Amino acid sequence: LDSFDQVIDAFHTTGNTANLAATLAYLAVFLDRTGRLGQAAILHGAATRHPAALSLVSDLTSVEEHLRDALGDDTWGSRTNEGAAMEAGDAVEYAHAEIRRMRDELSASS
Fold it and tell me: Tens digits of per-residue pLDDT, 29-76?
């Protein structure tokens, strides 16, 4: 989680949108694998605004299929549209908030 935070900040600060999109996509994959499906769909939508996300993150297609099946087309569509409507700064804030939430949950369970 710390690495996601640091890399997201670095790419956002330097304006490296391609690698920022890829990092958000990797975070979406991680969220999918940890059962945070709605959040994964939102970040998928934010990440795939940039074509680099699809070309750099090979698992993204299978995550999309899984999320569509698990959430249903309507929820999938509304969540990805929510993410796609985010500007880069909003997506970064959203990602940081989700990372904080996961850290808090891990701390509470320890």
Answer: 999 999 999 999 999 999 999 888 888 898 899 999 999 999 999 999
Where are the strands (E) in the chain, listed by range?
none
> How many Å apart are CA 43 and CA 92, to the nearest integer?
9
Question: How many CB atoms sit inside 10 A of residue 8's CB?
Answer: 22
State CA 4 to chain mean position distance.
10
Report CA-CA distances (Å) from 65 to 2, 16, 90: 28, 28, 25
Closest alpha carbon to 87 in 3, 20, 7: 20
For residue 83, pLDDT over 90 is answered with yes
CA distance 14 to 88: 12
Q: What is the pTM of this model?
A: 0.93
Give the separation between CA 106 and CA 101, rounded to whole angstroms.
Answer: 9
Residue partners of 28: CB distance under 8 A and separation at least 6: 40, 41, 43, 44, 47, 60, 63
